[in-house]
Amino acid sequence: MNEPAYIKLGEQSLQAKTEQAVKAMSCCTLCPRRCKADRNSGETGFCQTGKKAVVASFNAHFGEEAPLVGNNGSGTIFFTHCNLLCNFCQNYEISHLGDGSTVTDRQLADIMLLLQSMGCHNINFVTPSHVVPQILGATLLAARQGLSIPLVYNTGGYDLVETLKLLDGVIDIYMPDFKFWDDTIAEQTCNAKDYRQVACGALKEMYRQVGDLKIDEKGLAYRGLLVRHLVLPGGLAGTRQVMRFIALEISQQTYVNIMPQYHPCGLAHETPSLSKPLEAKTYHEALQVAVEEGITRLDDRRPLIFRR
């Protein structure tokens, strides 16, 4: 059995990381928004989250990549709010409108232990960038009570290297999106003109920590980097440039999921070119582009139906 990183790290080091992260919330610069809100005193910045995390839902999820799902599912915990807020977000009610319940670190730890008891193969933190201190605190508590499955950091890719370093030795599997290459598109859709610059730095740090995705004899991932890329209508995601960056500056062995799920949600109509569903042709062209740029370790699921 492959021992998770946070167990190897040890309680003392995990405690120190937790304390450092919690202290940082007093003038929060944990994400690229650098709001400087005093979250420990109840203030909320861009992410609308104070000292405690907010959870929208948790379950054994079977819609993730095969190396995460296995037979029993990935133990997903969907955090409310977000530090990116894409206008086309498919979880708009959670990210923008704030659906969810406030939880203490103890309650979050109990959720993690419950998902493990259900047989889930990992704990999958969805939209975690703004709740790193709470994740560290809950992991510390859960590990004391026998948590022993990998942790997955399932992020939009808008993560500061300094904050990711707090997770070094804690997270087993990083699963970032690389959403856009073009600064203008990033600014129009999520008011994050620096998205590309931040995501490039984040992926490099993630890869430094965990390397290429490693899969055991049962077909389950236990450590490494898995990158997601949502194909957007009209090539707006900049797929060729993203794949070239991954191949040349990360690794040609990077496990990549080229995703076809785009459909207009939330405020997508604010960007006219995003007001229509993705066409099958655009998606298949994106797959070909990835191969042309040297990415061949692709998630092998294929869509059955595209909207017209």
Description:
By secondary structure, this protein is an alpha/beta fold. The chain has a single domain, classed as TIM Barrel. Helices cover 35% and strands 16% of the residues. It is built from eleven helices and nine strands. Helix 2 runs antiparallel to helix 6.
Q: What keyword list fits this structure?
A:
35% helix, disordered C terminus, 9-stranded mixed beta sheet, alpha/beta
Give the biggest sheet: 9 strands, mixed
Radius of gyration: 18 Å
Instruction: Count all strands and give the number.
Output: 9
β-strand percent reads 15-25%
What spatial form do the alpha-carbon principal axes imply?
globular
Number of helices: 11
CATH superfamily annotation: Aldolase class I
Instruction: Look at the structure and give the mean pLDDT.
Output: 95
- Helical fraction: 25-40%
- The second-level CATH architecture is Alpha-Beta Barrel
